[in-house]
Write a structure and sequence with these properties.
Layout: H1 15-34, E1 46-50, E2 54-60, E3 69-74, E4 77-84, E5 103-110, E6 121-125, E7 128-134
Antiparallel strand pairs: 1-2, 2-7, 3-4, 4-5, 6-7
Amino acid sequence: MMERFWPGYSGWSSPFTELERMRREMDRLFETVAGHTPTAGVFPLVNVTQDPECYYIRAELPGVQADRIEVTAAHNSVAISGTRERPREDEKVSYHRRERPEGAFRRTVTLPGDFDSGKIEARHVDGVLMLSLPKAAASRPKQIPVKAS
């Protein structure tokens, strides 16, 4: 294939360039209609880890009081819900940027195995909710002895 090049001519562009431009225009349109900048990601942010005995969930909940948090658990999923309120400000205040969501939230985390819902521990320290979910006996790893014949 032969390609011609004229200095100073930028007539050729990738089709993806045009799609990217249209995406930016749609984002701008939705921001204008909604009246705010969309938030990045899901609230609250969570880390899920495990060891042989437990699953652990750490959820970042800055500005949420412990009495406004509800944790429900069933089978292999945990739901964290609550309300984050914005501090009341003078009605003359106008925002330049508003990225911290407020209001009701709900986040459900599905774990790879079952846990004992009767032994869940929940602590809220410095804006971080820490859940400790002991694994159900059936979900814990078992050592199987191998017999020689």
